[in-house]
C-alpha cells in the first residue's frame, strides 16, 4: 500500500487539485481533507495548498489557522507528522506558529507571477531529501503577500540551525528578508515555502521542468521506508 497524503481545502483554496495531481504523479495517494474535518483520516502527511483562504481577510492565513482541521493537524505536526505549506499554506503555518516569522504584503505592493530561481539550502528535511544542498531549481511563484519577515534574532537562529530551506536567487520577488523563500521547523517535518512546486511536476506545465517533483518523491520515500 502506498503512502496517503492529505490535501486540505479551505474556502478560497485554488491549488488543491494541482497538489493532488502532483502527489499522484509522484506515486502516492492524495486524500482530500476539508477545512471543517475534525480528523485527518489517518493520512501519513499533509499539504496545505496555495490560494486565498477566507479571502485573505485580516491577514493571509489568519482565519484559516482557526479552522477545525487545524486542531488535529497542529497536534500531529508537533508529534512528527510531515506537513508542507505552499504559499497560502506557508502563511497558515506561520499564523499557527508551526513555523517562525510572518508574511507581509510584497514590498512593491503588487501581485507577482513568474518562474523563480531558487537555491536549495537544506536537503535533509522530510520534503527535500531528493534535492542536493546548493542545487538550483526553477519553481513557479505567484503571490501578493509573500514578503517573509522575522526579527533579527529569529533570522540568525534560522541561519545558524540550517533552517532556511530555500533562498531566492537572481531576483528577490517580494522583499523577503535575507532572500528567504522557505523555512523548516527544527525537527524537519514541517516545511513552508512561497513558490509552488505542484506546478512544476510535468514538462508540459509550469516552468516546463520537473523541479518541483522532488518535494513529493522525497516525502513518499520517507514514508515508504519508515
From TrEMBL:
Gene Ontology terms for molecular function: glutaminase activity; phosphoribosylformylglycinamidine synthase activity
Cross-referenced InterPro entries: Class_I_gatase-like, PRibForGlyAmidine_synth_PurQ
Keyword list, A-Z: ATP-binding, Cytoplasm, Glutamine amidotransferase, Hydrolase, Ligase, Nucleotide-binding, Purine biosynthesis
UniProt-annotated catalytic positions: 87, 196, 198
Locations listed in the record: Cytoplasm
Primary location: cytoplasm
Catalyzed reaction equations: L-glutamine + H2O = L-glutamate + NH4(+); N(2)-formyl-N(1)-(5-phospho-beta-D-ribosyl)glycinamide + L-glutamine + ATP + H2O = 2-formamido-N(1)-(5-O-phospho-beta-D-ribosyl)acetamidine + L-glutamate + ADP + phosphate + H(+)
Pathway field: Purine metabolism; IMP biosynthesis via de novo pathway; 5-amino-1-(5-phospho-D-ribosyl)imidazole from N(2)-formyl-N(1)-(5-phospho-D-ribosyl)glycinamide: step 1/2
UniProt KW ATP-binding keyword: yes
Known EC number: 6.3.5.3, 3.5.1.2
UniProt-listed Pfam families: GATase_5
Keyword Ubl conjugation attached: no
Organism domain of life: Bacteria
Family matches, as CDD domains: GATase1_FGAR_AT
UniProt function note: Part of the phosphoribosylformylglycinamidine synthase complex involved in the purines biosynthetic pathway. Catalyzes the ATP-dependent conversion of formylglycinamide ribonucleotide (FGAR) and glutamine to yield formylglycinamidine ribonucleotide (FGAM) and glutamate. The FGAM synthase complex is composed of three subunits. PurQ produces an ammonia molecule by converting glutamine to glutamate. PurL transfers the ammonia molecule to FGAR to form FGAM in an ATP-dependent manner.
Subunit structure: Part of the FGAM synthase complex composed of 1 PurL, 1 PurQ and 2 PurS subunits.
Protein name as catalogued: Phosphoribosylformylglycinamidine synthase subunit PurQ
Native source organism of the sequence: Streptomyces massasporeus
Amino acid at each position: 500500500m502506498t503512502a496517503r497524503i492529505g490535501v486540505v481545502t479551505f474556502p478560497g483554496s485554488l491549488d488543491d487539485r494541482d497538489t493532488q495531481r502532483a502527489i499522484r504523479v509522484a506515486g502516492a495517494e492524495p486524500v482530500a481533507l476539508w477545512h471543517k474535518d475534525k480528523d485527518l483520516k489517518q493520512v501519513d502527511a499533509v499539504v496545505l495548498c496555495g490560494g486565498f483562504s477566507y479571502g485573505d481577510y485580516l491577514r493571509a492565513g489568519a482565519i484559516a489557522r482557526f479552522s477545525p482541521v487545524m486542531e488535529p493537524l497542529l497536534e500531529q505536526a508537533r508529534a512528527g507528522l510531515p506537513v508542507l505549506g505552499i504559499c497560502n499554506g506557508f502563511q497558515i503555518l506561520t499564523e499557527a506558529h508551526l513555523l517562525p516569522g510572518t508574511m507581509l504584503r510584497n514590498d512593491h505592493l503588487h501581485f507577482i507571477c513568474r518562474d523563480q530561481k531558487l537555491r536549495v539550502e537544506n536537503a535533509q528535511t522530510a520534503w527535500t531529501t531528493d534535492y542536493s544542498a546548493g542545487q538550483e531549481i526553477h519553481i513557479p511563484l505567484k503571490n501578493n503577500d509573500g514578503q517573509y519577515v522575522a526579527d533579527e534574532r529569529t533570522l540568525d537562529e534560522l541561519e545558524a540551525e540550517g533552517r532556511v530551506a530555500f533562498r531566492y536567487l537572481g531576483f528577490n520577488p517580494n522583499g523577503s528578508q535575507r532572500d528567504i523563500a522557505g523555512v523548516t521547523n527544527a525537527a524537519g517535518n514541517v516545511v513552508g515555502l512561497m513558490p509552488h512546486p505542484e506546478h512544476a511536476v510535468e514538462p508540459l506545465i509550469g516552468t516546463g521542468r520537473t523541479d518541483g517533483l522532488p518535494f513529493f518523491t522525497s516525502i513518499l520515500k520517507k514514508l515508504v521506508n519508515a
